[in-house]
Each structure stands twice: as structure tokens, then as C-alpha cells.
# Entry
Amino acid sequence: MRNKATKVVITGAAGLVGQNLILLLSACDDLKTVALDKQKNNLRLAQELSPSVCTECADLALSGPWVDKFAHADAVVILHAQISGRESSLFIRNNLHATRLVLDAINRHKVPYSVLVGSSVVNSVANDDYTNTKKAQETMFLESGIPGCILRPTLMYGWFDPKHLGWLARFMENTLVFPIPGHGRYMRQPLYNRDFCRAILWCLKHRPVGKIYDLVGNERIDYIDIIREIKRVKGLRTPIVRIPYGLFDFLLKAYSVFSDDPPFTSDQLKALTAGDEFTGVDIRQTFGFEPTPFRKGIEETFCHPVYSKYTVERT
# Structure
């Protein structure tokens, strides 16, 4: 960060990325971090682990006193996002309408710099509510004229994960068999969350404007091998069983009938098997640090004596 007292506002701060980012920001001297999120329990966890953070429970899709938290801010990190859900209206509300209000707050208080966390899905072949609203969110940010940059991460893993690899690990712990769709050879490029947060810190310090950075995990790993690595690190003996793709998709759709927010949806299955391969920047050359090897990242995620114990609640 700059060599002066600064104030950073984080929207959607109590989720996977936000919790990790707050831990890193807390190590910065003379820095005030303001965390905005509508999930009270997750905010409480952030406060518990980083007592210096200022938290505000706020629904960013509704105007309110939270707007004043942007006053005298030196930078904003825009993290809020609707990632899964059954209704298109949720994505429009939380990815678009909320972003419009946040951008208005940034403009109103003349915040000099912002980082928008996008997603690699904007480069994918997927056609779903999440992908389409994330594309529109980027356009909104760029057209606002607000000085800043965009970071697009691929699938992330790390501490606090309520979905993705964290959910898969917990499911493996509590099931008799672990189902894999089809052959399971779906290439993924998982990005360690703490590496992504280090890239955010670099942007807050160096303040590139108008840049878009695609961040991709340094290793290409098949989905089934990710599951095997989780099984190894967790010391589990759960059998891994391949299920025909069509049956797997049917079971997901059936489960969604009984769940308003299923952890894994039919759309996400399509994205998993779409065959996307993403190209990202050279993390070491661009941001000045060596990416964490996947095996080390997985071990830190599930074996850390403190942070591996916590999981944020899904919103």
C-alpha cells in the first residue's frame, strides 16, 4: 500500500475472496479496512479473525447508510457477486443493480481508485445468468469512467470456501461414495485464493488504470485428479465412482427441485464439461510473486491449524 494512512472499502467482503483479502490487508500498517456485506454471520467471522476491520451489514442492492462508508476512501475493491441461484432476478439484482449503486457511491465520494473482481467466465462458451451478468457488470464498470482495473480469476480454492473445492471436500467426508460425471477428464485451472488476493494488493499499490488481467492457475489439472488430491490431503477412503453424464445431470436437476440454492447446478455442470481453456497473465512477471503450487495450496487449504477450520456461510 502507499506510504500513508489509507482506507479501503471492500464490497461483498465476507465471502471467500473477502475473508482472505481482509487477512492480508490487516497486516498492512496504517490501513483502515471497511467490509460491507449482507451476511451477518460471515461479517462476524471477519471481525473475529481481524479485529481491526470495520464491518457494516448492508444490502448493496438497496440504497442506505452504507453509501457514506465510501467517504474519504482511498480505494474500493468490488467483490460482491451472485454466483449461483435458480432465478435470473437474483443475478440481475446482485450483480447489476447492486454494482450500479456501488459505482454511484464511488463517484459521489470521488474515490480515486477501484478494482473490479470479474470472472474468467466472460471468456468462456457458457451462456447462463452468472456469465451474462458478469459480462454486463464489466461493461458497466468500464463505461463508468472510474479509474481502476479488472481482475478475472478462474475457479478459486482456499480457506473459508463454502462452495467449489471446500464443498466437495465436505461432501466427500460425509458420503459413502463420491460421484464423478462421465469420465471426469475435464481440465481445470484452479487458482489459489491467497495468490489472487496478493494480485489485488499489487493493484492497490501500483494502481494500473484501464487494464484487464486474466488470472489463471499455473497448473492444468483434470477434475477427477483434483478430487483425488482432496481425498489424499484429507486422508479419506471414500470410493470415487464415475456416473454417466446424463444421469448426473438428471440428479442435479432433481436435487434443485428441493433446494433453493443448490451447491452444484446443471449450468455449472455444463460449464465444467465445456472444455474451456483460459489464458492468463504471467503472474510472477506481472505481479512479482511466484504462484503457489497446487499441491501446496491444497495442503494449506485443508491442513492449516487455524484457518482450515472456518467456512463462510453460503448466501
Notes: Residues 88-108 form the longest helix (21 residues). The radius of gyration is 19 Å. DSSP finds eleven helices and 13 strands in the chain. Residues 15 and 312 are 6 Å apart (CA to CA).
